[in-house]
Inverse folding.
C-alpha cells in the first residue's frame, strides 16, 4: 500500500506570463516533461513567441499542477488523467452555463427584459458569456487538433 505525499508548491507570483523554466520550478516538473504534456493535454497551450519560446498563463500553471497531481500523486495514466480533466471541465462548464442561464432568465424576466438598458451592461453576465464562448472556441480548436 502506497502512502500519498502531497508536494508543497511555491506560491505562483501574480504576473501574466511565465517561462517554461519558471513553470518547471513552480510545478516541480522538468521542462521536457512540460513539452511532452503539451502534446498530450489539449488544454495546455502556452503562447509561443520568437524562437518557439513558450509563455504560460497562470491558469496553465495551475493546470500543470493538477496534471502533475493526477499523474504522480494519484497514480492516473495519461489517458485516465485526460478523461478526469475532461469530466471536470464538462462539470465546470455545465455549472457555469446554468449560472449564466439563471442570470439571463432573471434579467429577461425583469419588467423590461431585453429592452432593459442595463441588460447588456451587467458585467457578470457579459463575463460569463465571454468565458463560455472562449471555452467553446477552445473545445472546437481542441477537436480540430484531434482530427
Amino acid at each position: 500500500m502506497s502512502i500519498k505525499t502531497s508536494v508543497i508548491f511555491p506560491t505562483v507570483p501574480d504576473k501574466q506570463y511565465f517561462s517554461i523554466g519558471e513553470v518547471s520550478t513552480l510545478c516541480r516538473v522538468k521542462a521536457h516533461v512540460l513539452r511532452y504534456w503539451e502534446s498530450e493535454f489539449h488544454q495546455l497551450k502556452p503562447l509561443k513567441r520568437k524562437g518557439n519560446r513558450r509563455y504560460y498563463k497562470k491558469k496553465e500553471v495551475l493546470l500543470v499542477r493538477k496534471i502533475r497531481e493526477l499523474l504522480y500523486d494519484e497514480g492516473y495514466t495519461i489517458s485516465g488523467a485526460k478523461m478526469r480533466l475532461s469530466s471536470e471541465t464538462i462539470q465546470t462548464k455545465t455549472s457555469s452555463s446554468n449560472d449564466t442561464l439563471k442570470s439571463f432568465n432573471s434579467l429577461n424576466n425583469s419588467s423590461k427584459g431585453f429592452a432593459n438598458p442595463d441588460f447588456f451592461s451587467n458585467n457578470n453576465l457579459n463575463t460569463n458569456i465571454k468565458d463560455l464562448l472562449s471555452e467553446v472556441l477552445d473545445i472546437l480548436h481542441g477537436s480540430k487538433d484531434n482530427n
